[in-house]
Amino acid sequence: MVTSLVDIFQVEAKAMLEGLKLAWEQGFQQVEV
Predict the structure, then answer these.
(1) Alpha-carbon torsion angle 21, 30, 15, 19, nearest 10
(2) Residue 19 Ramachandran class (φ > 0 left, ψ -120 to 50 alpha, else beta)
(3) pLDDT tens digits, residue range 1-33?
(4) Where are the domains positioned within the chain?
(5) Locate the RNase H type-1 domain: which residues (predicted)?
């Protein structure tokens, strides 16, 4: 299986977005990345 750099970036970006959504739902409005 060949994994490109773009695929890795997309997975990391999606994980970051999900984490930010979770933090927002928990009441955090400022998150340092």
Answers:
(1) -50
(2) alpha
(3) 667 888 999 999 999 999 999 999 999 988 787
(4) 1-32
(5) 6-33
